[in-house]
């Protein structure tokens, strides 16, 4: 291994160490309450070293979201890619199931994605275009599973043909985020006052959404 290759590998490992340290800090303290000093301390690097790799705390946050998106997309691929036996509505149910499983298994990554989707963080200074563009691309890749299911439903007649696929995809995505956010923040309220668990609430909410997509009988 040449010196240039060795240095490149060392830099990549150090970059990975910083992201993992930031994950620990952000997930434990919360993104807003965390500082670059906290990350530097956790990574056992100087703050100057952190800024040699990342422009800002926001850029590191984007790298964490990118990790989260990749894990989510991996789950969606395992469940749906290459499986043509699902009808469109079944595929949408499977997608919802994957999101729920992801929210339970990877709550911190899921929360990072939700906070990104519900904020203007991507328009802040200090975030390089490549980090922002990668996050956009991965978000679109995750949405593509929903788009594909909707398009299939229109073609097979199980979903209304008058619905614009792109807009309907975004509506479903926004609705799913709202449903999952409600489950996360109001879990005990739902259980105590409405006698309904998180899984059942998600199922009933999504069933209502799917009924609105079906053609009139």
UniProtKB/TrEMBL annotation:
Keywords: DNA-binding, Transcription, Transcription regulation. Residues 35-54 bind DNA. Signal peptide: none annotated. InterPro entries: Homeodomain-like_sf, HTH-type_TetR-like_transc_reg, HTH_TetR, Tet_transcr_reg_TetR-rel_C_sf. Gene3D superfamilies: Homeodomain-like, Tetracycline Repressor, domain 2. It holds the Pfam family TetR_N. SUPFAM superfamilies: Homeodomain-like, Tetracyclin repressor-like, C-terminal domain. Residues 12-72 form the HTH tetR-type domain. PANTHER family: HTH-TYPE TRANSCRIPTIONAL REGULATOR BETI, HTH-TYPE TRANSCRIPTIONAL REGULATOR RUTR. This is HTH tetR-type domain-containing protein.
């Amino acid at each position: 291994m040449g010196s240039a290759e060795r240095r490149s590998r060392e830099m990549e490992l150090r970059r990975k160490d910083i992201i993992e340290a930031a994950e620990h800090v952000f997930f434990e303290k919360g993104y807003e309450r965390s500082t670059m000093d906290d990350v530097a301390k956790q990574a056992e690097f100087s703050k100057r070293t952190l800024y040699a790799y990342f422009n800002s705390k926001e850029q590191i946050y984007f790298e964490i979201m990118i990790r989260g998106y990749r894990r989510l997309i991996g789950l969606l691929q395992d469940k749906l890619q290459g499986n043509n036996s699902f009808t469109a509505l079944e595929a949408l149910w499977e997608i919802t199931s994957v999101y729920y499983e992801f929210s339970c298994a990877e709550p911190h990554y899921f929360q990072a994605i939700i906070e990104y989707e519900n904020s203007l963080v991507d328009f802040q200074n200090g975030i390089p275009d490549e980090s922002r563009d990668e996050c956009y691309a991965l978000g679109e890749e995750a949405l593509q599973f929903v788009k594909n299911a909707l398009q299939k439903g229109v073609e097979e007649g199980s979903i209304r043909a008058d619905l614009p696929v792109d807009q309907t995809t975004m509506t479903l995505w926004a609705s799913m985020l709202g449903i999952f956010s409600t489950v996360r923040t109001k879990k005990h309220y739902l259980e105590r006052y409405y006698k309904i668990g998180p899984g059942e609430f998600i199922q009933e909410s999504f069933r209502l959404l799917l009924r609105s997509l079906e053609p009139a009988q």
